[in-house]
């Protein structure tokens, strides 16, 4: 097993550049995990509260003050200074999605029937914009109807009525159908990013090693040694396989300490299998590249193009559901697209029925076909090289 | 002499395939991928009618008021107020649709309308808001009937006639399209990648780092003059590359840079100066092989780009608000911020602060380079 041993000696030499990708992957995963709160299956319904900023310049009016309280109950109030640039920044980076300014004298004009308007700044046409508009207009119209229809209504009366009306809320029941796996869970992002990490690491590793073995001088020396060519090739393939399995296992195992209970789930087994399949696809791609690429300088360029290209195109970084149809159509020609599709289906899988499992198996089979096809091409190239006496 | 070195350094750099890949091809490739993957924000946040179902039981069929309230927000004919796509189903069908994520929730009339959902969320909140609104008007009707029964007629007519109490004030002349941050950070990254050219020039002039440097040091020419001419070649190449990237972004990918062409060009020049000088500084300060220098250059560039929001948009805002100093000393952030300020703000104070900072950085970087490289003598190489 000299060749096999040599294989891992070369891995050891390149361990620094390989582990960079590994740690970048870990870093991104930890960072993303911190951002998305791990939501548990809902027991009770909680309303979504848009982050908004409120500036009340009509503090002397009860109507305006009560309105401000109403807003704070129905939205998340973010404190930012009322300066043009900080408001613009907050809106641009979506720290707030809606800014309300209650002008001085608003309460009085509402009562007296003058043109009472609140000024808002929002992201045009966005859903938060429409929702907040509805909420505010509902409150104002209700208040106005009281003012119009109950003569001489006092501010306290108005407020009591409004508070009473606004506290009437629809009865919402959250129906749990079996065990609910939240579609927004972090583990989904983890396994989507897995595709990026495994592509970068395996392509870089396997291609570098194959290139080292394919160096004309080294190859000539090795062909002269008393070892069967089939054994020599077998050991290289075995080495690549073991290397791939180690990387796969490492990343899979880390998901346990990172996600704890969320990873201890039947679905995780499917995720592991799916990840193993894409790892084999990458392995066959690396074989192909290792036999096509001639210089080491080209490896990192081609590795970056391929890895980033496939990842962006097929929804590894950006969820598939928000990508455009036409891009996704192109993406169906990539194995990563089917990998991501499988991950998405597995993480939203709640009922293990053949109806739900079958599409996932299909996605996996498509990936395997990719692996076989690419492997066939690379074997063809190897054979052609040998028959044309190239070393 | 000056022109001669300039010309030949220009040719040498242009023909360096590996460097050209990273500073020329790679950003264009990355930008294309961004464009493909990152959806237009306008479409992402746009309100789409929500798919819901309503269970058609006896109570629903008898409640004409509720039916008309529902059809007023789900009628396809008046698409201005279209909030819901409603399917009328049986209870079993509604549950089936909900399990398979075909609807966000359904309405069941059971002593008044009730909402059944699978999870909390924004669409579900809108559904709840609609039903709440319906119940609140009912509650108000009761209150008014009690307090002033004569007004009920008028009240009913007012319900149909909802007024808007909101006036829109736009925050800036440009729309807050936040996906632009990715592209601006990408340009900043490309500017800093130009550092590879700067590093190369430094290596090629130092006698202990390359054979060419040894030869150049022997020539009876002022070293500063040689360096100035070759670094100028690097900067010109860098400016051309960034210009090409901008043209590509603007015309092929339709990325908006605002309308001030002259200011955009000024940013390109400032960004290129910073990039090349940054690389020159790294090249002179770090002692070691070229791979080590470019390794450090690339990792610092990546870190700076990350902090300016290239991989994750929110990062830029977090840094700007929590660690303002970091935002000011990170050249990548200052470059992307200059483009951002140009696009989004109506005033120029922030833009010119950024440009000033950029030229300030280049001067500092070049001074450091100058003081490490000057008067170096070698007893043996």
Give an account of the 3D structure:
The complex is a heterodimer of chains A (391) and B (381). Chain A has 391 residues and is mainly α. Chain A folds into 2 domains: 2-39 and 179-387, no CATH class; 51-166, abc type-2 transporter like fold, CATH 3.40.1710. Chain A is 68% helix and 6% strand. Chain A has 15 helices and 5 strands. In chain A, strands 2-1-3-4 form a 4-stranded mixed β-sheet, covered by helices on one side. In chain A, helix 3 (62-74) links the parallel strand 1 and strand 2. In chain A, helix 8 runs parallel beside helix 11, helix 8 (186-214) runs antiparallel to helix 12 (296-314) and helix 14 (335-347) packs antiparallel against helix 15. The longest helix of chain A is centred in the C-terminal third of the chain and has 34 residues, at 354-387. By secondary structure, chain B is of the alpha/beta class. Chain B folds into 2 domains: 2-40 and 177-373, no CATH class; 48-157, D-Maltodextrin-Binding Protein, domain 2. Helices cover 67% and strands 7% of the residues of chain B. Chain B has helices at 2-14, 17-37, 41-45, 58-62, 64-74, 91-99, 122-147, 152-160, 180-193, 195-203, 211-218, 223-252, 261-285, 290-307, 314-322, 324-329, 331-344, 349-373; strands spanning 50-55, 84-89, 105-109, 113-117, 166-168. In chain B, helix 7 (122-147) packs antiparallel against helix 8 and helix 12 packs across helix 13. The longest helix of chain B has 30 residues, at 223-252. The mean pLDDT of chain B is 87. Classes of the chains: A mainly alpha (391), B alpha/beta (381). At the A-B interface, helix 2, helix 4, strand 4, helix 6 and helix 7 of A face helix 2, helix 3, helix 6, strand 4 and helix 7 of B. Strand 5 (171-174) of chain A pairs parallel with strand 4 (113-117) of chain B.
